Amino acid sequence: MPKTYCLDCDAPIQVTDPEEGDIITCPECGAEFEIISVDPLDIDYPLDEEWDEYEWEEEEEEEEEED
Ligand SMILES: [Zn+2]
After folding, report:
1. Cα distance between residue 65 and residue 67, in whole Å
2. Which of 21, 27, 42, 56 could bridge 37 with an S-S bond, Cβ 3.0-4.6 Å?
């Protein structure tokens, strides 16, 4: 079973069926992490809502004007 370690308390976290983007919870401290890579298994802190402040550039759609 794939295993990784909590970034907060170093407790081993076993992941039954890891998938990128999944959120896993440390059984020791309850911290949540996002799986960013499956092979090798790697986790990172999940993105916060703070990122909402970042505005993606909107693609301007060019429309042909019909007359
Ligand atoms: Zn932990």
Report:
1. 6
2. 42
